[in-house]
């Protein structure tokens, strides 16, 4: 017990070694929790996934600086990770839950027409759409574009017309 207290300290008055040990433990706890949350947490970049990352970082930092005890911090992070997994799993089977948790995609351009209502609702300008067209197709025009969508993760996807 004395060794643990020496390495990890107690309360807010921590020395460099103690904060370093707490940071190392927090790193491995975060790594374990993110592995539990699944690869989608970093792969998708949706608000749903980013909330988990931000919350884990904020809560784990409390243990590093000694504001909160380590065990309650790890417990809180575990609960957040399990909630994330549960909501991700439920959203696979329920479109309603998926729409609440992950949002929904919006069509911004189809059949040669801008979908101005969706563009306005999502604050996407014609320049934003053209930027995505240039980045994804290398073209500076909508002539070869069949559709443009704002995906649930916030990225704009461009579908080009089929060439025959």
Automatic annotation (TrEMBL):
<keyword id="KW-1003">Cell membrane</keyword>
<keyword id="KW-0472">Membrane</keyword>
<feature type="transmembrane region" description="Helical">
    <location>
        <begin position="46"/>
        <end position="64"/>
    </location>
</feature>
<keyword id="KW-1133">Transmembrane helix</keyword>
<feature type="domain" description="YetF C-terminal">
    <location>
        <begin position="94"/>
        <end position="163"/>
    </location>
</feature>
<dbReference type="GO" id="GO:0005886">
    <property type="term" value="C:plasma membrane"/>
</dbReference>
<dbReference type="Pfam" id="PF04239">
    <property type="entry name" value="DUF421"/>
</dbReference>
<dbReference type="InterPro" id="IPR023090">
    <property type="entry name" value="UPF0702_alpha/beta_dom_sf"/>
</dbReference>
<keyword id="KW-0812">Transmembrane</keyword>
<dbReference type="InterPro" id="IPR007353">
    <property type="entry name" value="DUF421"/>
</dbReference>
<comment type="similarity">
    <text>Belongs to the UPF0702 family.</text>
</comment>
<protein>
    <recommendedName>
        <fullName>YetF C-terminal domain-containing protein</fullName>
    </recommendedName>
</protein>
<feature type="transmembrane region" description="Helical">
    <location>
        <begin position="70"/>
        <end position="90"/>
    </location>
</feature>
<feature type="transmembrane region" description="Helical">
    <location>
        <begin position="16"/>
        <end position="34"/>
    </location>
</feature>
């Amino acid at each position: 017990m004395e060794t643990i207290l020496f390495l990890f300290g107690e309360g807010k008055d921590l020395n460099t070694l103690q904060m370093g040990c707490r940071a190392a433990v927090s790193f491995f706890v975060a790594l374990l929790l993110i592995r539990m949350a699944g690869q989608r947490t970093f792969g998708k970049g949706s608000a749903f996934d980013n909330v988990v990352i931000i919350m884990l970082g904020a809560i784990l930092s409390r243990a590093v600086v000694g504001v909160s005890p380590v065990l309650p911090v790890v417990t809180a992070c575990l609960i957040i990770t399990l909630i994330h997994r549960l909501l991700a799993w439920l959203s696979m089977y329920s479109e309603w839950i998926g729409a609440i948790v992950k949002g929904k995609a919006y069509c911004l351009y189809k059949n040669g027409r801008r979908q101005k209502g969706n563009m306005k609702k999502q604050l996407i300008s014609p320049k934003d759409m053209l930027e995505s067209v240039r980045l994804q197709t290398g073209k500076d025009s909508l002539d070869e574009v069949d559709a443009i969508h704002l995906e649930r993760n916030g990225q704009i996807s461009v579908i080009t017309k089929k060439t025959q």
